[in-house]
Design a protein that fits this description.
By secondary structure, this protein is an alpha/beta fold. It contains 16 helices and 13 strands. It has an eight-stranded mixed β-sheet, sandwiched between helices. A three-stranded antiparallel β-sheet has the order 7-8-9. β12, α13 and β13 form a beta-alpha-beta unit. The radius of gyration is 24 Å and the shape is globular. The relative contact order is 0.13.
Length: about 450
Amino acid sequence: MLYPLYEAGHLWLAPMRMAAEAAKIACENPFNPLAYAPQGRLVAASCTMFERATRVYAKPAFNLGVPERIVWESPFCRAVAFGEPGPELDARPKLLIVAPMSGHYATLLRGTVEGFLPTHQVVITDWMDARQVPLAAGRFGLDDYVDTCIRLFEALGPDLHVAAVCQPSVAVLAAIARMEAEDNPLVPRSATVIGGPIDTRRSPTAVNALAAEKGFAWFEKNCIHTVPPGYPGAGRAVYPGFLQLAGFMGMNLQRHTDAHHAMFDHLVRGDGDSAAKHRAFYDEYLAVMDLTAEFYLETIQRVFIDHELPRGVFRHRGQRVDLGAIRRCHLMAIEGEKDDITGIGQTRAALELAVNLPANAKAYHLQPGAGHYGIFNGSRFRAEIVPLMRAFMERSVAPTVQQVIEADPRPILVPAEMTAHPHRHAAAPRAARREWAAMRERPALPEQRIAG
């Protein structure tokens, strides 16, 4: 009943929102003398805060000033590519950013995308709001998430680099491990996991403690609701985005309260620039989406309660997932010193679990002073983390070419101009050419839609 009550509450408040908006416009009208008085700004600011506190925030746009196009699509996910197609874009290395499906839209990673636009072909996963997906599309659980990652890697490869932000780190590593175990030639060149809950037994945070304390049954009983009529996904069991948002806000309630008090003061004083920055952040932060119940519950059980991946018992479609199978894909782990979502050591565990990956194919970075949001957005991310990730991805190319030449284990120096597009060079070693030929000839899966 919670979902219908939530919808009814918004409908009930609609006339009051309209009245508040009308009062705000009247108080800000330059022909109204009250607009120049402190009382007028006070009323306008109050109306603004009421309207923002009671509205439903729509999905934001990326607005990065470059063309966007869908290059892959399924009922639950689409891959959005950035940039004008052409030789200049094709010459750049490919980077797939796997956004978290955790209540917020992929646009929360706008800064992540922007950091790599000048140097990479950037693609990001744009997960669908579960209440917009009809029941006929079927279920979407953790195994389906791993399947989606594999299909994306195959569709966007070869020579693909992957960056997983937070929650998808588990699924991305599982997908890479399965591809490595099957000797899939389209395994990504590198994968960077950023603030990922690989082993939540390490430095547990409030999020981890809640999962351990409440247990699976509590989440199933209290967090799962049915999409009401009026949406394409009516009847689907989901974890509503508004519940996830309430959890996020509750973790840092005082911080959010202070931020809204500050915005009110900015509006009263007429400090439009400061108010605009607050508005831009919360327009993004307060826009939420629903998750399928099966994905949410399986993630709680298998990642946060049973710790299946670090314990070596994680299975995908019945097959055991062993990170020890990773031998070609380079791995980088990034953590934040003040991360209150993913504790220090939880992401680094991925490097330790990849026991058969050489040490020179691994990298780790702990960002001083950064919280969870700061390791994939903001000034520290742009100035310190992005250059490290770029350098890591560049280093990952030449050693991978070396690894496919099994007949000659000696180090092979690969010219920089070859590493960008090795399959274009006739001088490449024979074994490498065979691998690249197999990559080009591999047919796309029939259910995929690939656009240029």
